Amino acid sequence: MVQLTRIYTKSGDKGKTGLGNDERVYKNSARIEAIGEVDETNAAVGWALEFCAGNLKNLLLRIQNDLFDVGADLCVPEPAETSTTHRLTVTSAQVDYLEHQIDELNARLSPLTSFVLPGGSKASAALHLARTVSRRAERGIVTLSLAEKLNPEIMRYLNRLSDLLFVMARFVNTEEGQGDVLWVPGANR
């Protein structure tokens, strides 16, 4: 269990921070950028949580916990193949869970006839915002994966997460009687 007794350490005052393996890296490294984007995703999910209830709220709480797992996985670079280091990693079961939730919610929605505009209800708008932040985090993970070896489940998890947040946003609008807000191409010419 994590125990924080001091919030500031002054160890980052020169622009570096520590990874989970005690390596020091610059705060603008691709790895720290990716960790920060996952953290932003978690904050956006927390904001969306404020507008959701019941099963959706429980699902978002589970996602927040999983996002900490993603951050923990990212904060310790992949060890050498012969390493015996035990580290927390995102698993395919976590990705499978998101896929199951997508399928469950999407089965209750009508097929799309146009692109969906973010909005409709407060909950839907907040879920769409979380979706776009998670897409940015996914792009950061792709950038990092081009330079360093990563657990492939991280990228899969973030990809499914943005899909789930999209479906949840549609679901909330449907449940609240709002329906999808559809894009009308060229409507304001």
From TrEMBL:
GO terms for molecular function: ATP binding; corrinoid adenosyltransferase activity. Its EC number is 2.5.1.17. It is an enzyme of class 2 (transferase). One of its GO terms (biological process) is cobalamin biosynthetic process. The keyword Signal does not apply. Pathway: Cofactor biosynthesis; adenosylcobalamin biosynthesis; adenosylcobalamin from cob(II)yrinate a,c-diamide: step 2/7. Belongs to the Cob(I)alamin adenosyltransferase family. This is Corrinoid adenosyltransferase. It comes from Candidatus Finniella inopinata.
